[in-house]
Amino acid sequence: MSSSARHSPGLKNYIEKNEIAEALTLQVCLESLIAISKVVSPITGSFSDRDTCMKKKTLQTLLKTQHTEITEYHIYTKLSRFEKNASNRTILEKIASEELKHFRVWEKYTGAKVNPSAFKIWIYYMISVLLGVTFGIKLMKRNEKKAVKIYQKIPREIPEAAVIEAEECEHEKNLIGLISEERLDYVGSIVLGLNDAIVELTGALAGLSLALQNAKMVALTGMITGISASLSMAASEYLSTKSENNGKSPLKASVYTGIAYIVTVIVLILPFIFIAQPLTALALTLTIALLVITFFTFYVSVATDISFSKRFFEMAGISLGVASITFIIGYLIRKFWNIEI
To answer: What does pTM read for this prediction?
Structure first.
């Protein structure tokens, strides 16, 4: 301490306070580093120079990405174990090994042991079983596309990020595209049956609702019309597929079209069976039609990588447009022909 400080009590107090403040500041910084090191490196308990260079936000990002990779590894592994097609099984096993490799890269930087999400493993496995492996995987990738953007934001001190980003893109564009599923091969036949059933039957039910004004009669007439139309569509699809000679089975194509058509018919007619007021039943039927269009359009857009909004508004516009026109026709027929039931 200088002589001026020894002779000046005020200056002495000032210096002592600054020394205490600096000591406290250093202590706080040291405690913060120790706390962060425990979060970042729970295995070693150390805080390396590499980790100190990373921002806390980056470390959190790496931990989230690490969690995603190990979860997807278990999803692909579980799917591969239950996949009967040998080619599909090989593809799934390859993707699983890549995900595990990515997990270990992030683990090297975070030093943290991260457990997979049991819920995500279960939900995506069930979706894949019920709606197809391709749909389940692409839905998972669509929900986690932010991960690719995250790789681009990770600092340059992690050179592996660029490699992992490229491999993730390869998974989606190449490997997943190699997976073969019958339901996707015949998705065109399913779309044909579903679209025609929605467009034709919503239109017919709209016209019948105003012309007959009796829910039971509308349901009976609609069911007869729908069943005959489904058989007609199935036969047409059989002949069409056979003439195209594109490698698809005409019988399978016709079955997919017929089943899609008849299931849609049953769903659309249900309101008229349980609701006595035909116009109320019609409103519910149109709502159900929109829900069916929404679900199936979403399914096709995910599985085949097409635009959801464009296809949805196209199908919804056609269905509601046809329903409106036939509703007016039913009203005109009832008024000018004086039909009363």
So the answer is: 0.67
